[in-house]
Design a protein that fits this description.
Layout lengths: L1 H19 L5 E5 L5 E5 L5 H16 L2 E6 L3 E7 L10 E4 L1 E6 L3 E7 L3 E4 L3 E4 L5 E4 L2 E6 L4 H8 L3 H21 L4 H6 L1 H16 L3 E7 L6 H62 L2 H11 L21
Antiparallel strand pairs: 1-2, 3-6, 4-5, 4-7, 8-11, 9-10, 11-12
Length: about 325
């Protein structure tokens, strides 16, 4: 920005100077015949051209720069001179900053959450099985620790992401994966990734906060087939167990129905037996004669056979 301003100012100054001295652009001279003639004055160009060239050179080689530290960022000014080359000589800054690029450097670090994804990495799980991960996660820098991080790493944030931070994240995933059996990882992925986040924050707590980590882990093809077969076997076992429970329930239902039918039969039989007993208790000889009398139509038989008391109708 400063170089641009210097160049524009010098260009304007050269044009203004040329306009003010344009009366000197030509000089009048007398030729050998005594006539007056105007001739272009080359010396008139020296000063405006000198101003323009001077401004161009200054804008190209001047050491000063102006930068603005945006909101959500923290800048540090690093001293590039001395034996320690900025290790002890840095200061935090915000807003507009003007500095000499020959002797100082301004680095800008974001303090809000950043999202990053790494390429495929191979990790070894407990038991020696390999698996492929493609970690993605969010991280944020601790604002008060940025200077200390630069003192130790001397890198900008993008270089840290692809170097030191990447090694720390992949190392934490690998070390945590060594504690888990591969099938347990896929059965308890949420707990596995939570354990990795805890391990990452344990290692990076000095400078970073890590959250929302996803390993996107995939097992080898042979292991995938084994996991699928195991899953199917578990599903079949669960289905068989459900069928057994259903069969037991159906059997209990049938027993209950049978008991209900049996109880109804017993109740009906007891009622019938009680009715017969009651009738038997009430069938006295006098009551029987009474029933006979009620059922007789008043007609006597035409024939009586022997001593049996039976009437026979001989006409028929």
């Amino acid at each position: 920005m400063i170089s641009t301003v210097i160049f524009v100012v010098c260009l304007i100054a050269a044009v203004v100077f040329a306009m003010k001295t344009r009366g000197n652009m030509y000089v009048t001279s007398t030729d050998r015949w005594g006539d007056n003639r105007e001739k272009f004055n080359a010396a008139w160009l020296f000063k405006p051209l000198g101003i323009f060239v001077f401004g161009t050179l200054v804008s190209l080689f001047q050491p000063f720069a102006v930068e603005r530290i945006d909101a959500g960022h923290k800048g540090i000014i690093v001293n590039l001179t001395g034996d320690n080359r900025g290790v002890q000589n840095y200061q935090y800054t915000t807003g507009w900053v003007m500095y000499n690029t020959w002797f100082k450097q301004v680095l800008e670090f974001p303090t809000y959450q950043q999202h990053i994804e790494y390429d495929d990495q191979v990790v070894i799980t407990k038991g020696g099985f390999s698996a492929t991960i493609k970690p993605s996660f969010n991280y944020s820098l601790k604002p008060d620790a940025i200077g200390d991080m630069f003192v130790n790493l001397r890198l900008e944030v993008k270089d840290i992401e692809q170097g030191w931070l990447k090694n720390a994240i992949v190392g934490a995933v690998n070390d945590e994966a060594n504690k888990w059996e591969v099938d347990s990882i896929f059965s308890n992925r949420q707990q596995f990734e939570a354990a990795i986040v805890a391990e990452c924050n344990k290692r990076l707590t000095k400078w970073f906060d890590v959250s929302q980590l996803r390993t996107n882990i995939t097992p080898p093809e042979a292991l995938q087939e084994s996991i699928i077969a195991k899953t199917k076997a578990i599903q079949q076992a669960e289905a068989s167990e459900q069928q057994a429970i259903a069969a037991i329930a159906e059997g209990k239902r049938k027993v209950a129905v049978a008991r209900a039918d049996s109880a109804e039969t017993v109740i009906n039989a007891n009622a019938a037996a009680l009715a017969i007993k009651i009738k038997q208790d009430r069938l006295t000889p006098l009551y029987i004669e009474y029933l006979k009398a009620n059922s007789w139509d008043g007609k006597l038989p035409t024939t009586v056979a022997g001593n049996s008391g039976m009437f026979l109708n001989l006409n028929k």
